[in-house]
Amino acid sequence: MDDTTLTVPEKTRFAPGTFWATAGTEYLVSMDLQSVKPEGSGGRSMYLGVTLSCSPQAGGPGISVGGTQNMLTGETTTYSNQGLISVPEDGAIDCSIKASAPYDDVASNGTSFDIDATWNATPVDGEAQASDEKGLPRTIAAGAEETVMSTDLPPDQGGGDDLHALTSLHLTTCTIVNGSREDGRAWCSPNALDKNGSTVTTTLRADLVDDSGTVCQNLGTLSGEADHIDLYRHHRVLSLELDETVPRQPCGETVRVSTSVHNEGPAPLVVHRSNSSLVVVGE
């Protein structure tokens, strides 16, 4: 576990580390971080952006995952996210975490607070897939439930595999028109804004799919507790983790893992592409 102290408005990079990667091996890199806006600090909430970055020393594609949230006074706020990385040749990969509370025109200006974090890189002994986040960002109306990410493990995985799925969703609620921006545009319609925010439930499920593309067995479903995102919270990162075992004689050879969101409203909800992820490992 690494720790640092940040004072608004500051940015810092901490928890540096390096791991050796073998060519042709996928690595699951994950981050867990938590912090608290201190009692007695200015304002009702305080912005904190977090990014885990990993880059091969020899160059080439890296990963960058994290999230942004407004921390409420006295409440522990957690950030979890993950991604896959690989290298074409054996070599070292450098990772570190960036924490940012950059705004100076806020009531929390001058607040110092502690951050605790850890990251891990684990080689995948099997198959790994990450959703391409196709269809994100998107706005989910009040009362609607939608599947927002999905990915399949290939059919040659067979039965008897242990399945490990992790998902993180970067969400904002439509309480203000310019507060949910991505791809150069606002995703909240002015006539749909509601300062009461959104109550959200996220679900991660794994299914076996037969040759016709039909679900023939549900392997497992996990739903998080209903989470209320109000005007002061606005940003939210919600994560789930599911572990299941594929039967040795499965009804279908393809495993489909999906993440869905139920928005109880009253405000619409934006699911962002940036910092939303779904990673599935079969071993």
Structure described in brief:
The chain has 283 residues and is mainly beta.
What does the model show?
The chain is mainly β. The chain has two domains: 122 residues, Jelly Rolls (Sandwich), CATH 2.60.120; 156 residues, icosahedral virus (Jelly Rolls). 0% of the residues lie in helices and 63% in strands. Strands 9, 10, 12, 18 and 20 form a five-stranded antiparallel beta sheet that branches. A hairpin with a 2-residue loop joins β13 and β14.
Which regions contain 5 or more consecutive residues with pLDDT less than 50?
Answer: none
Percent helix: under 10%
> What global shape is seen?
globular
What is the tally of beta strands? 20
Mean of pLDDT: 94
CATH top level of the largest domain?
Answer: Mainly Beta
- In N-to-C order, the SSE pattern is EEEEEEEEEEEEEEEEEEEE
Tally of discrete structural domains: 2
Q: Hey, roughly how much beta strand do the residues contain?
A: over 45%
Descriptive labels:
63% strand; 283 residues; single chain; 20 strands; Jelly Rolls; 5-stranded antiparallel beta sheet; mainly beta
